[in-house]
Structures are given as structure tokens and as C-alpha cells.
Amino acid sequence: MDKSVSDQTKRYVYKNQRMFALVDRIKLWPSRSGVLHGVKVIEQRGNRLHVVTHCGEEFLVYDSKNSRSARWLRNRWCTCPCPACKIPAWKLSKYSSTVFTDSARSRT
């Protein structure tokens, strides 16, 4: 009876969207070292994003479809979670079962 999250359902996310919508929905942030951080707060400030992670890091980034972090999230290039953020296993399995697609059905 116990099924993992990836066996139960697939989640569809529109892949050509702004980084704010992507990170706000997934609540994960890829660092340049290849570590996934959990996002505590994300705010949109004009064309920039203010991101606060669970391990206490704060930074400003541009809101872009083609940014490094947006591409890394869509392509799943970051796999190891940050030990300080303590990302739960269900969130990692939910992220790994997410399908990034071009179709319009994921916009709802």
C-alpha cells in the first residue's frame, strides 16, 4: 500500500516561465557548487528576486527564463541537498518526479 510520491502522481511545470514562478512553485534553489538549497522566502522586487534559504543565505538575482539557476532546476543538474537546509526526502522525490513540459496544461 505504501507508494512513493513518484509512483503516485506526476507534477507538470511549464518550463518556459520566469524564474520567480519556477522557484516559488518548487521552493528549491541550485547553488553554483551543485547543492540544492531549500527556499524559505522569495520576493519579487522589480526585475530582481530576493531569495532567502533555510540555511540563512540571502541574495538578489535577476528574474530570467534563461538564467543558470532556472536551467539547472529544469535539467536537474543539482542532486545533493544542503545539509544545513535539511530538505525532507518527500520534497526531493517530488522534485525528481516533476515533469517540465512545453504544454499549456501545466499553466493551471
Topology:
Blueprint: H1 5-8, E1 11-14, H2 19-26, E2 28-30, E3 35-45, E4 48-53, E5 58-62, H3 68-75, E6 80-81, H4 89-97, E7 98-101
Parallel strand pairs: 1-7, 3-6
Antiparallel strand pairs: 2-3, 3-4, 4-5
Description:
This protein has one domain. It contains 4 helices and 7 strands. The strands form 2 sheets. Strands 2, 3, 4, 5 and 6 form a 5-stranded mixed β-sheet that branches. The protein has a two-stranded parallel ribbon with strand order 1-7. A hairpin with a 4-residue loop joins strand 2 and strand 3. The mean pLDDT is 86.
Task: Give a brief description.
The protein has 108 residues and is an alpha/beta fold. It has helices at residues 5-8, 19-26, 68-75, 89-97, and strands spanning 11-14, 28-30, 35-45, 48-53, 58-62, 80-81, 98-101. The protein has 4 helices and 7 strands.
